[in-house]
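Notebook B, p. 112. Complex prediction, attempt 2.
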Amino acid sequence: MAGIASDMIRGNTDTILLRFLCEKDSYGYEINKQILKLTDGQYGLNEATLYTAFKRLERAGYITSYWGNENQGARRRYYTVTQEGRAAYEANRNEWQNAKRLLERLIEDGKD
Amino acid sequence: MAGIASDMIRGNTDTILLRFLCEKDSYGYEINKQILKLTDGQYGLNEATLYTAFKRLERAGYITSYWGNENQGARRRYYTVTQEGRAAYEANRNEWQNAKRLLERLIEDGKD
DNA sequence: TAAGATACCTTATCTGTCAAGGTATATTGA
DNA sequence: TCAATATACCTTGACAGATAAGGTATCTTA
């Protein structure tokens, strides 16, 4: 997933994770599969990026975590979005929409 | 211009500069003023970012530069986009449009 | 004559991403 | 039975782009 596309998504990683956690508690591996599915396999988070982002969000107080009690299969660390996390998601979503508008002007309006 | 919005634009800096240079030869200070104008003052490149990007583009062979012969005022380094630069702009623009579509799915489709 | 605008540049530092490595368990097919 | 694959987590070191802060030099304006 290297290259420009991933650099374009940079800065939105946290927002994407929060979006999924706003729907329901989940864990890293599952969220990444959902991302891949939603993008038809065009985008997925590198694992190091994924777990770094979870740590960042937890440190910021936007999510909390707990171990699931799987009685079979690999263990899972579940994440729950906090009230602050929901607010951050809304704010980030607005920021994305604003940034999108600006980029459309800056990149696309100069079409030949 | 710190914060999330600037991180969202990261990865598009080169594309933005190429877009302006595809219209006409220009120099750093002028392009930055155009960016500010197009975004109603909402976004402008940090100078260090700006000149770093020019260097990167020149090293990549996407632009060339020459000193303008101003007989008054501060000296200006003008940039010209190359054929490869135009091709890169088109490719980047497509990548941006693709990334935009993905981000809309990943961020916006989960609306409440 | 000082302040502000124009115009360029460098350095050190920060942050997010990523490749590469690791651990452990369960399932599936040869 | 046993190797491969999928699930699921984590850490480390390196890299690239963005930035704050500093600098230089000229011209205009109050």
